[in-house]
Design goal:
Elements: H1 18-21, H2 30-43, H3 46-51, E1 69-79, E2 84-95, E3 98-111, E4 114-121
Antiparallel strand pairs: 1-2, 2-3, 3-4
């Protein structure tokens, strides 16, 4: 297990996303959830991804969906709300020996008192910048 957390927080994994991926705690902000989901993607934690995805938008996922070689996470900005939050990020991965980035503005909502990923947004909602 790498010393630094895959989410690029600069913290050791044991003091960052590991507590969420192990099921011992649940993220209390959308950014923490997004970072833990990135770590789950890098480590192939399919059950965690399903658990943290809103049931109305969660696709059928399999281990084959987790084959991407993720390299780095860059959180650009966040807007934490009481019932919904937005996180904009770039997730860098390798594709055919070339570095590429997934740039996404993600919507998170409280569902049964826990933050869950809902869906990507096309742009920041009005008044959110």
């Amino acid at each position: 297990m790498p010393n630094n957390c895959p989410c690029c927080s600069g913290k050791p994994f044991s003091q960052c996303c590991e507590i969420y991926l192990s099921g011992n705690a649940y993220p209390n902000t959308a950014e923490a959830l997004m970072r833990s989901r990135y770590s789950a993607f890098t480590l192939g934690k399919l059950a965690y991804l399903k658990k943290t995805w809103h049931p109305d938008t969660c696709p059928e996922l399999s281990a084959e969906d987790l084959q991407t070689e993720w390299r780095k996470l860059e959180v650009i900005k966040t807007k934490q709300g009481l019932k919904k939050s937005i996180v904009e990020f770039k997730a860098w991965f390798e594709d055919g020996g070339e570095a590429r980035a997934l740039h996404e503005i993600s919507l998170f909502k409280l569902y049964k008192k826990r933050w869950v990923y809902v869906e990507p947004l096309d742009t920041w909602p009005s008044g959110s910048k």
